[in-house]
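Hi V.,

Quick status before I head out on leave. The structure for the redesign project is tokenized and pasted below; the design run finished overnight.
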């Protein structure tokens, strides 16, 4: 079963991410539906415990701003580890729309990004496509990447004041 880094520990990922062009009936398992599918079918998708919505990097959260408070699970796709638009989307979702549920990073992320992803508001990281680099270290502690730095200067989602205000 695929793994998920959540609450600073590895857990089994029981959620399925449906493809961007998905149409048809939903599986029985918990799933993330693409944003366009949600917008077209939201009246019939009323189980926030087993249905989440995922956005691609080129989609804006404004498209479903009125629905964000009804959801408990959101995911943002990173089509490439060099595509940083998901960082901005996460901050918008957390700060502007006050989303308090699980915000998951999916797609192509690398371990070096986990600390920064968490500062932008992500609290779960799908490890299906996580680039682990050298296969010689299969037991590398991914949780350590979340604590890469002990002091941060800037304000962020999980630290609302910059360092000079905290002193």
């Amino acid at each position: 079963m695929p793994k998920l880094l959540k609450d600073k520990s590895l857990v089994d990922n029981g959620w399925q991410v449906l493809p961007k062009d998905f149409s048809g009936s939903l599986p029985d398992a918990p799933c993330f539906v693409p944003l366009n599918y949600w917008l077209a079918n939201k009246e019939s998708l009323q189980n926030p415990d087993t249905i989440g919505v995922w956005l691609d990097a080129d989609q804006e959260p404004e498209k479903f701003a009125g629905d964000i408070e009804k959801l408990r699970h959101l995911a943002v796709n990173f089509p490439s580890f060099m595509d940083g638009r998901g960082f901005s989307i996460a901050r918008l979702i957390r700060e502007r729309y006050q989303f308090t549920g699980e915000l998951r990073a999916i797609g192509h992320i690398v371990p070096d990004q986990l600390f920064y992803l968490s500062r932008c508001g992500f609290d779960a990281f799908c490890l299906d496509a996580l680039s682990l680099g050298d296969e010689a270290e299969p037991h590398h502690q991914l949780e350590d990447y979340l604590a890469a730095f002990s002091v941060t200067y800037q304000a962020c989602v999980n630290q609302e004041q910059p360092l000079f205000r905290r002193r």
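Above is the designed sequence. The CA atoms of residues 22 and 37 lie 7 Å apart.

G. will cover questions while I'm gone.

Best,
W.
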